[in-house]
Amino acid sequence: MERYILIIGTCDTKRQEIVFLRDQISARKQKVRILDAGVLRSSPPGVDITNEQVSIAGGRHLEELVRQRDRGQAVAVMAGGAARIARELFEKGEIQGIISLGGGSGTVIGTGAMRALPVGLPKVMVSSMASGNIRPYVGTSDISMMPSVVDICGLNRISRRILRNAAASICGMVEEKEEIFSAQRPLLAATMFGVTTPCVAQAQKILEENGYEVLVFHAMGTGGQAMEQLIGEGQIQAVLDITTTELADELLGGKCSAGPNRLEKAGEMGIPQVVVPGAMDMVNYLPDAIPPQFRSRLLYVHNSATTLMRTNVEENRHLGRIMAQKLSKAKGPTVVYIPLGGFSAIDGPGQPFFDPAANRAFIEVLEKNLPSHFPVIKREAHINDPSFAKDAAQALLDLLRG
Fold first, then answer.
1. pLDDT tens per residue, range 239-269
2. 262-303 pLDDT, tens digit each
3. Buried b (16+ CB within 10 A) or exposed e, 368-396
4. What would the mean pLDDT of 337-366 be, rounded to a whole number?
5. Checking CA distances to 52, which of 118, 230, 282, 367 falls within 20 to 30 Å?
6. 82 within 8 A of 6, measured Cβ to Cβ
């Protein structure tokens, strides 16, 4: 079967640019096809997947969308149809990469299709939205967002260069040989923040020395979401969840929330997990977006993009209850490890967030609400002490070995 690169675009408004991109990819000796997601008129000649096919895949006929003149609904239908078609083509083994270009609506459609495809398949989105907040577009995927600099409205010396670069990017990605991995190395997941890095790095080293491959996820919201997704897909055999700070951000409106379902998928899948309240002493906010009710609290400037707020006793009680409720549903072996010396690099003697009373509140409520058969192991160590990392890693190894 001949594989190709799929271009997604709206030929009613971006036909000239789409054809230019197609020709640039073809000039690099790659097969290419076009999916038209526009709705203003029927697809022009040269389109491989018409907008009528896309709209039907999205659950509506094109003429209905044209007649109703509801742009928001039309974009939603075409985004759903493009995602469905892209997934079907991938499952048939037809596409080896996907590229799209567009403004606001085109980016929603293009990235929606890309998010329906697995991590590792090359994905490039050329977008006028790419220099802003791209989290809604990228989600937990590995989409490469390329700012268009100028709006995608005709060809000029800037847009031609950007589109040539985009063509070179997607072609280079699909030409890269896939790395062959040994199926003998089980895949584990771990969570990390800058303030828990020493612990995770040490634990990762121990696990890898014992024959495991470790994926480390940055607990910034999308990191936790990506890990939960991969666990749900059955790709992860066990979890060393050292950095559960995303629970605090979800509770208190921080920027690093991973949503309400964080810390649930491993238990649902029944895989071994060792859980630590890493960085549970903090909530992450944008410096100019700290809620008014928290501006008089203990704050710490972590960097120019992040200000941290220390969680207090009452909030830690609530977090202990939340963690207990989530872990109580686990179908697989689960152990909680508690570093009594502090939950993060800035929670320890002499550090700005050192507050033993707040940490004790979390521990007491957690123990009270967890079923008795869930072990809670307390260590007289700081989370970043090598001895704690060693104990946590060994606990996961013990669970894996039964």
1. 999 999 999 999 999 999 999 999 999 999 9
2. 999 999 999 999 999 999 999 999 999 999 999 999 999 998
3. ebbeeebebeebebbbbbeebbbbbbebb
4. 97
5. 118
6. no
Beta strands in 219-371, from DSSP E residues, in sequence order: 238-241, 273-275, 282-285, 299-303, 306-310, 334-339
Contact 255, 286 (CB under 8 A): yes
Distance of CA 205 to the CA centre of its chain: 24
β-partners of residue 9 are 36
pLDDT of 182 over the 60 cut: no
Give every CB contact of residue 53 below 8 A, 6+ residues apart in sequence.
81, 85
Percentages of the chain per state (helix, strand, coil), in multiples of 5:
45, 20, 40
Structure token digits, residue 267: 């238990």
- Is the alpha carbon torsion for 37, 40, 43, 46 positive or negative? negative
How far apart CA 60 and CA 48 sit, in angstroms, is 19
Q: Which pairing describes strands 306-310 and 282-285: parallel, antiparallel, or unpaired?
A: antiparallel
Helix count and strand count (H, E) for the chain:
14, 14
Residues 6+ apart with CB under 8 A from 176: none
DSSP classification of residue 293: G
CA pair distance 8, 11, nearest whole angstrom: 9
Could you tell me which of 372, 261, 364 has the C-alpha nearest to residue 318?
A: 364
